[in-house]
Write a structure and sequence with these properties.
single chain; 99 residues; alpha+beta; 5 helices; elongated
């Protein structure tokens, strides 16, 4: 999978790169991901937080360290479906407000 595909689906470039690096590497710490993606640790944490909110990543604590893991790529379809439902609900609300 290419990062540009994820960007076209609404992910930021950093989120896309982080997800793909996590998918390829398996369970990883934020520090090791930051090195692979070549961004700062604060930015990787922001990206990981967004991925977790979208249900595309999770973490487990081992030896007092967080190890992040990517959800399977099929979860992207679930995320897109949820996003589509939210958009349809917003459209419905807007239609009710319009004269």
């Amino acid at each position: 999978m290419d990062a540009s595909v994820l960007v076209s689906l609404g992910f930021s470039k950093i989120e896309a790169k982080t997800y793909l690096a996590l998918l390829k590497a398996g369970p990883s710490t934020a520090a090791s991901l930051a090195k692979k993606v070549e961004i700062s640790r604060p930015n990787i944490y922001d990206s990981l937080h967004q991925l977790i909110e979208h249900g595309l990543a999770s973490y487990a604590i081992k030896n007092n360290r967080r190890f992040f893991q990517a959800a399977p790529p099929e979860k992207i379809l679930d995320y897109l479906q949820e996003r589509g439902e939210k958009i349809r609900e917003q459209q419905r609300r807007l239609a009710e407000l319009l004269p």
